[in-house]
Specification:
Length: about 300
């Protein structure tokens, strides 16, 4: 069975998509609930600066050092954003719009000037190429395992362990940070830890899916799940399920229509969000109209 899997490029591509989607939606759920979903966009672009700086210092294109550098750059993005917002001269969304283009631009300039002959390019960072993940492998127990599967397995495990270990604290600090602080849960520390995991997930996903698909997975499935349930644990589960469904359906539609696999996976997350918006059992347009219709009928009766 394992032999068949490692010889099947289609299964490997869909698995990587599902793993990236699940890992991204886990951290993205809390960003969406906090109203900070665009931080995933800011982080995913600005960590290009961290990737290039780490390469200039160590000449490592991947590995733990790159993850640490990306995580620190993500924290730098948030710190600079909050620093500008705390000045009361601009709102947080404007601060985000200033910080991440600046860091991203500096990263691109450093890339073009000092690393032009290195296999780190802006096209890969933004768009990735999930269709080729099966070509970049490492040997584990005699099997050639895609590098993306290894890196995303690590990140998915870390994200699950973090959320599982601090579920109550994350829930309270997300919905009532003042109470969480009063109870000694240190919501600020939890938030920055969450952002470090977000940054690490983004850089782990770069080679496979790029920044654009990471952003789609981090924001759209949690937003769709939010329209379907009010329970946090179920929202996390639905986000993972929607990400997986988008990966599988996106792959087959991309092959059928001969278009970008990553692009079609991103489109399918939007399709599931639209379906939740229209037909969600509680917040969907159809169910709301039916409730209003029943309410008018009861009032008339």
């Amino acid at each position: 069975m394992l032999e068949a899997f490692f010889n099947n490029a289609e299964l490997q591509i869909m698995l990587v998509g599902a793993m990236v989607g699940t890992a991204s939606s886990i951290v993205g759920t809390f960003l969406v609930l906090r109203g900070n979903s665009m931080l995933s966009d800011a982080i995913s672009h600005s960590i290009v600066f961290g990737i290039v700086v780490v390469w200039l210092l160590t000449h490592h294109q991947s590995g733990p050092v790159q993850l640490i550098g990306a995580a620190l750059t993500g924290l730098l993005t948030v710190f600079l954003t909050e620093l500008l917002a705390s000045s009361k001269r601009m709102k947080q969304d404007a601060a985000i719009g200033l910080v991440f283009p600046a860091l991203f631009s500096i990263g691109v300039l450093l890339l073009n000037v000092y690393a032009n002959d290195v296999h780190i390019d802006t096209h890969t960072v933004l768009l990735g190429e999930i269709g080729f993940v099966w070509l970049d492998t490492v040997e584990i127990l005699g099997y050639h395992v895609p590098q993306a599967v290894v890196s995303m397995t690590i990140m998915l495990t870390l994200n699950l362990l973090f959320v599982g270990a601090f579920f109550k604290e994350l829930k309270l600090s997300t919905f009532d940070p003042a109470l969480a602080k009063a109870l000694g849960f240190a919501p600020g520390v939890l938030f920055y830890a969450l952002l470090m995991l977000t940054s690490s997930t983004a850089v782990a996903a770069f080679d496979a899916v790029g920044a654009v698909l990471f952003i789609a997975f981090a924001i759209v499935p949690p937003a769709a799940a939010y329209l379907l349930t009010d329970r946090l644990w179920l929202m996390l589960a639905l986000g993972a399920l929607i990400s997986t469904a988008a990966s599988v359906s996106g792959y087959y539609l991309a092959v059928r229509w001969d278009v970008s696999i990553g692009g079609m996976m991103a489109v399918m997350t939007g399709v599931f969000l639209l379906l939740a918006f229209i037909a969600g059992p509680r917040y969907g347009i159809i169910s709301q109209r039916l409730r209003r219709h029943r309410a008018r009928g009861l009032a008339a009766g």
